[in-house]
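Quiz preparation item.
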């Protein structure tokens, strides 16, 4: 039985410009202990999908207009507000892209951590503080006993993100959602955060959803990858199958745009031409068709369903080109 089962999720925003079709029939599962990577460019619907799962969409203007979200046999979209508050931070936790805006700048770290611990675990203030210090030590913050009294601005960007991870682990969640947690960090700190999450996942046995726009970052992290474009999943596959034989033109384009440091002769990167479609005036056919070098007539009139291209590998494309025939050996060997 999957830990999380998302079925035909649809989220829209009702604005003065019209209806923004942010998430359009997204379906996926997360198994216990599994790491899922969700990748796509800005505006593809990655963050809105997981915010919908957490029921954190601002309403108005946003609204979940269809679909189901099942977590351990419970339909999350039908839980009461009190039940949902008990679920968030306890069984499902989320860490966000920018810890400086996620942490309250005028409250000490101790206050921000112990408040959640007391709310979910019912501990006394001294017990909650001890638990908070233990968590800070667990994520690698030196001098945690003293530093817990600091304000967020007294931490570096990487240390603030470690604090956010510690807060996410407060109640040993079964699912941790990481929404681009390394975007604002330099590559050295990015690598440290990735290794930290991998270690914590192994120690705690939790499942992880990692959202990013960087396919190369997922190479050492994810078990399975979902590629999103224009509010849809256009490809989902186990890690190695997706890197070695991508079947959607958008995924192929993403892989062709990744720079390589191990090539003797540096090839020019190949960008994806054009721009993503407007989510207000949603296209009739495949949303990627105007940018696709493989597009055929049906692509402009019918949106392809997500269907099997091989066992465990699903693609929403009428053509399904083989990435093995298109990518160079170096582009195929990221993992």
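Solution:
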């Amino acid at each position: 039985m999957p830990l999380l089962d998302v079925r035909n999720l649809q989220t829209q925003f009702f604005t003065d410009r019209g209806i923004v079709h942010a998430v359009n029939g997204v379906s996926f599962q997360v198994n216990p202990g599994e790491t899922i990577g969700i990748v796509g460019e800005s505006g593809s619907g990655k963050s809105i999908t997981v915010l919908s799962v957490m029921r954190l969409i601002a309403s108005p203007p946003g609204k979940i207009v269809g679909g189901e979200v099942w977590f351990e046999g419970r339909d999350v979209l039908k839980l009461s507000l009190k039940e949902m508050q008990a679920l968030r931070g306890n069984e499902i936790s989320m860490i966000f892209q920018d810890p400086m805006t996620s942490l309250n700048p005028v409250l000490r770290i101790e206050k921000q951590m112990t408040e959640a611990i007391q709310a979910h675990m019912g501990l006394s203030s001294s017990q909650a503080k001890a638990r908070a210090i233990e968590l800070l030590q667990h994520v690698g913050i030196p001098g945690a006993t003293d530093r817990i009294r600091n304000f967020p601005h007294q931490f570096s960007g990487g240390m603030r993100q470690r604090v956010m991870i510690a807060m996410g682990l407060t109640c040993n969640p079964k699912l941790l959602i990481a929404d681009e947690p390394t975007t604002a960090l330099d590559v050295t700190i990015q690598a440290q955060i990735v290794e930290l999450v991998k270690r914590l996942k192994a120690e705690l046995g939790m499942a992880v959803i990692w959202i990013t726009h960087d396919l190369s970052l997922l190479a050492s992290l994810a078990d399975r990858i979902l590629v999103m474009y224009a509010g849809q999943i256009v490809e989902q596959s186990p890690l190695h199958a997706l890197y070695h034989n991508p079947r959607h033109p958008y995924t192929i384009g993403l892989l062709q745009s990744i720079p390589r440091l191990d090539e003797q002769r540096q090839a020019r990167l190949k960008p994806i031409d054009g721009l993503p479609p407007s989510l207000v005036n949603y296209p009739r056919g495949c949303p990627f068709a105007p940018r696709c070098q493989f597009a055929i007539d049906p692509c402009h009139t019918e949106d392809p369903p997500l269907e099997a291209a091989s066992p465990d590998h699903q693609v929403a494309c009428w053509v399904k080109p083989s990435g093995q025939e298109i990518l160079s050996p170096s582009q195929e060997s990221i993992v």
